[in-house]
């Protein structure tokens, strides 16, 4: 199993999107655990976000990057916005 790292963006995104919805928070937490178990099965993104992967949680998307034995979760945002946001 991989270990999780979280970017400064992810922490803010997570707090903002899950603070009022406990059910959605549980869905996100469950999806994070699934990603940590098998991160390589999720879709690779194309330029300019090559090197990142993504997974959907309802209308939201989690972007992440595999780095050795770590999975760095980078963003959690609505599908319409996530690809326009900074990732580094």
CATH superfamily: RelE-like
Structural class: alpha+beta
Q: Briefly, what CATH class?
A: Alpha Beta
Number of strands: 5
User: Please, how many domains?
Assistant: 1
Descriptive notes:
A hairpin with a 2-residue loop joins strand 4 and strand 5. The protein is α+β, with helices and mostly antiparallel strands. Helix content is 35%, strand content 32%. The termini are far apart. It has one domain (3-82): RelE-like (YaeB-like fold), CATH 3.30.2310.20. A five-stranded mixed sheet has the order 1-5-4-3-2. The chain has three helices and five strands. The longest helix is centred in the middle third of the chain and has 16 residues, at 22-37.
Key features?
single chain, 88 residues, alpha+beta, YaeB-like fold, five-stranded mixed sheet, 3 helices, 5 strands
Summary?
This protein is of the alpha+beta class and 88 residues long. The protein has helices spanning 8-18, 22-37, 79-82, and strands at 3-6, 43-44, 53-57, 60-67, 70-78.
Walk me through the topology.
Layout: E1 3-6, H1 8-18, H2 22-37, E2 43-44, E3 53-57, E4 60-67, E5 70-78, H3 79-82
Parallel strand pairs: 1-5
Antiparallel strand pairs: 2-3, 3-4, 4-5
